[in-house]
């Protein structure tokens, strides 16, 4: 009787066993770390490319210096060319004058003849010394003409050589300059390509930075959601403990009243038995009758005590202003009728959901793992035979398909259907661990090894 009373008054609900399965900070930390690693790699690649760009810049600078040197050399050659052109012009004038002298002498020789000139010079001399002088003069003139011819040839050759040398130097400078310009363009193209590669790396890095920023925002949102749910669960747990404390207080009061009524009934029965024994102690026949009467009175007293207990429970329930506790009444079939009772379980717990879809379940059957014993105490059929419309009770830590029941409170669910071909049941359930705590959350699992409560 004592155990039945305590089972009827204590309220226990499934506690929050775990935070819902949301994206945790650890997952985001790993993704952010991967983005940081990628950013670091891209920065390294950009640094390598920048090193190559710097090397090419140095090469361009070197080539540019060489080009400047050649340009300076070309300027010098151009100046030398101008000077040479001046010399060539002077030589050409000189050559032209010589050509005129030579042509004039040639005409004189051709017309008069050199021999006649010599004879005329001798015949026209005034004296021997004059003859000698004129002959020497004529010889000197011949030699001068000869030297003039030689000088003419030398000047022409010199002009030709200087022109060739100058043209060769100019051609060499132009060739070197063209080659350096080609190298400079090739290096500039490589540098441009590397700048494109660097820009691509920079773009990838910017994208990675944006992804990292998004992940951090998502991480903060996940942490905030986790904190909100945790706070909600803590508040629910606090309310559950407060309800347990209140129900424990009610149970203690009821137990105390029950024990007091039992003690009072026992005292009255003992007093009556003593009175009857003293009045009939002289008669042996009446003693047996008195003993029977005493036994009957004792039974009557027990019934009175039971009635007193029930009355006490009802009084205790009605005097509590916080919760109105309806009293269960036995049905004609031996089972306690709970259909008229309200749902006194905490909203969002598995017990609340099952009571909501199966009103015939008891209001004070305790935690999910206690429902089998509580239902049997109320006269319901409890066994291991699965059936549609039954309530299934899970022990602490027992498998519920893809997860395990709470290690302290167990779990309950409603059997939607039973498949005998593969011995599985399809259940609907509620609880704070689901995305929809008030249900229904459907699952199919093995029907073996479970406790079933039949309506």
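Q: What amino acid sequence fits the structure above?
A:
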């Amino acid at each position: 009787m004592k155990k039945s009373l305590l089972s009827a008054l204590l309220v226990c609900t499934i506690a929050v066993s775990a935070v819902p399965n949301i994206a945790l900070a650890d997952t985001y930390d790993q993704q952010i770390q991967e983005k940081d690693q990628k950013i670091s790699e891209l920065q390294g690649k950009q640094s390598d490319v920048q090193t190559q760009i710097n090397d090419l810049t140095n090469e361009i600078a070197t080539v540019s210096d060489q080009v400047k040197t050649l340009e300076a050399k070309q300027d010098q050659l151009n100046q030398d060319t101008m000077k040479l052109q001046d010399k060539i012009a002077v030589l050409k004038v000189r050559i032209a004058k010589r050509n005129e002298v030579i042509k004039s002498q040639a005409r004189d020789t051709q017309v008069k003849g050199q021999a006649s000139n010599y004879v005329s010079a001798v015949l026209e001399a005034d004296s021997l010394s004059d003859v000698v002088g004129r002959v020497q003069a004529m010889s000197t003139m011949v030699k001068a003409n000869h030297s003039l011819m030689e000088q003419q040839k030398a000047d022409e050759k010199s002009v030709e050589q200087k022109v060739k040398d100058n043209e060769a130097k100019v051609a060499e400078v132009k060739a070197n300059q063209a080659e350096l310009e080609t190298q400079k363009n090739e290096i500039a193209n490589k540098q441009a390509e590397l700048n494109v590669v660097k820009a691509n790396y920079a773009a990838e890095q910017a994208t990675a930075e944006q992804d990292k920023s998004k992940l951090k925002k998502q991480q903060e949102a996940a942490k905030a959601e986790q904190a909100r749910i945790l706070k909600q669960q803590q508040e629910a747990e606090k309310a559950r403990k407060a309800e347990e404390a209140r129900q424990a207080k009610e149970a203690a009061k009821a137990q105390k009243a029950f024990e007091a009524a039992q003690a009072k009934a026992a005292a009255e029965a003992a007093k009556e038995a003593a009175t009857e024994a003293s009045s009939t102690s002289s008669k042996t026949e009446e003693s047996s009758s008195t003993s029977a009467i005493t036994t009957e009175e004792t039974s009557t007293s027990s019934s009175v005590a039971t009635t007193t207990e029930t009355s006490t429970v009802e009084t205790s329930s009605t005097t509590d202003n916080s919760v109105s506790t309806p009293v269960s009444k036995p049905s004609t079939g031996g089972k306690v009728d709970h259909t008229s009772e309200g749902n006194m379980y905490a909203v969002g717990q598995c017990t609340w959901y099952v009571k909501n879809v199966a009103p015939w379940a008891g209001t004070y059957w305790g935690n999910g793992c206690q429902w089998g014993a509580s239902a049997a105490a109320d006269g319901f059929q409890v066994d291991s035979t699965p059936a549609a419309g039954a309530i299934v009770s899970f022990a602490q830590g027992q498998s519920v398909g893809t997860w395990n029941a709470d290690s302290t409170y167990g779990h309950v669910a409603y059997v939607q259907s039973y498949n005998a071909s593969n011995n599985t049941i399809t259940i609907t359930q509620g609880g704070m661990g689901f995305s929809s705590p008030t249900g229904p959350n459907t699952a199919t699992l093995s029907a073996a090894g479970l406790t079933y409560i039949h309506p």
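Q: And what stands out in the fold?
A: Residues 343-455 form a domain with the endopeptidase fold (from Nostoc punctiforme) fold (CATH 3.90.1720.10).
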